[in-house]
Amino acid sequence: LNKVPSNNPMIAESDRERLVNNILFNLNTLTISVITGLVAATSKTAFDRAVNGNYQVIERGHTVLLMDKWCGQVSPIIQHFDKLKNKGDGPDIVTRPVVV
C-alpha cells in the first residue's frame, strides 16, 4: 500500500488535495470505529441473552450432573457412564445425554 497514489493523507501536491485526503482518511477511521462498535455491541447482547435468558428447561431424556465447580471428578464419571453404555448392561441413566 505504500506505493498506492494518495495513500498517505499528508503527502499531497496542494492544500486542496491534502484537505480531501484528510477528510477521506478521517471518514474511513470513523467508519471502521462504528462497524467495530456495532459488532462488539451485538456480540455482547447475544452473550447476555444466553447467560441471562429464561429458556425452557427440558425435564426429561437426559442425566444431569450437578457440580459446584469443574473438578477432577467430572471426567471419570462421564467415562464410567460411557463404559457402562458401551457394555449395554448399565442402568437407564447411562444411555441418556449427560448435562454438566
What can you see in these coordinates?
- With 100 residues, the chain is mainly α.
- Helix content is 52%, strand content 4%.
- It contains 2 helices and 2 strands.
- A two-stranded parallel ribbon has the order 1-2.
- The longest helix is centred in the middle third of the chain and has 38 residues, at 15-52.
- The model has no long low-confidence stretch (mean pLDDT 78).
Extract low-pLDDT stretches: none
Total strands: the figure is: 2
Distance between the termini: 51 Å
Mean pLDDT reading: 78
Radius of gyration: 29 Å
Backbone structural class? mainly alpha
Query: Strand order of the main beta sheet, please?
Result: 1-2
Distinctive features:
mainly alpha; two-stranded parallel ribbon; 100 residues
Summarize the structure.
The protein is mostly helical and about 100 residues long. It contains 2 helices and 2 strands, in the order H-E-H-E.
List the helices and strands and how they pair.
Layout lengths: L14 H38 L10 E2 L9 H14 L10 E2 L1
